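Q: Sequence in, structure out?
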Amino acid sequence: MSDFPIVRWTEAGEERVARWRSEAGTPPPKRIVIADDRMTADAAYRLASEGNALLWRGDFHNARQLLQAMARRADRKQRKPAATPIDAFNQHRQAQSQRARILGMLLLPFETGHVIPLRRAPDVSQACTEAYGAAEEPYIASMRELLGLIGAHEWRRKGVEIAALGGRIHPHYGVFSPVRGEYVGLVAGAPLPSLELAFDIGTGTGVLAAVLAQRGVARVVATDQDPRALACARENIVRLGLGGRVEVTQADLFPPGRAPLVVCNPPWVPARPSSPIEHAVYDPESRMLRGFLNGLAAHLEPGGEGWLVLSDLAEHLGLRSREELLAVIENAGLTVVGRNDVRPQHPRASDQSDPLHAARAAEVTSLWRLAVRSGTSLEPVSEP
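A: Exactly. Output:
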């Protein structure tokens, strides 16, 4: 843990130090005050809004209740009506960032071995070890992040039921959970161009690679750059009994060679992620999307298909137009041979209190079936 920054504060007239842990990359707080069960939610919210971190020394469950009370105060803040969908998106992201900053100011102390030295504190050692690794020194982290770690541990332990697999996928911390099953269903239902070989680009939990293998594809090569995703996918593939048919390998997009089927489900929204888990949702400047499309022709066998699984939410938010997407496809030497659509069933699509409700209600997820256009060079297309 010597690579983690030091946080300093004064307590009982003495200067104290500890390591600072933040998976979201939040810098250590500059000002820390001591808080306990006597602190009111109004006082905590005011201090946090002013940039003061609160190091908790009271009862653990009281700290959790305090965080909930602070969240209610953050959610009551009035938002100005947005003039355009992109304004609504930017305001929503800004509000999310401010909310996360304020709620992230409630801090907990941790001792060696991820032990929380507070009354009624639960045993969180396994959840923290899964996300942080070993803890050989005391450290401080936010209560909000800890609750995220605990939630991720429960997802990993219980798994997510995937109808197309007839089994469960167990996501790891920092790896996006396949809770929106409509895109999995698209891959499970589209006609396969070959049963010989498929590439799954950006595999994440390995769910699409597993679906392809269960559909009868003899060999699937699944790639990812994130070590957590690679470990997660390998564990899921073994758990599903598909280790002999699916190879999980580290690569920037494509593995070597060509395949008659190449599948990719890139992040859907061209915006900058603010935490590790958001890399599965936000793709700055559509880099992964463009990288997949521009390199696809060089990795498809003659007569093969590339499957792009993509929501049009970005189009409804004004972040990317359909014309822009089609232009990238054309410039990459590809042609659309088919498209299968499905409307998402997630709760936010019907939640009218969501500031992005209009875009979510109109959202469609598509599986674009792409082929190499006749006469196209097989070299990857370079961005202008």
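The mean pLDDT is 92.
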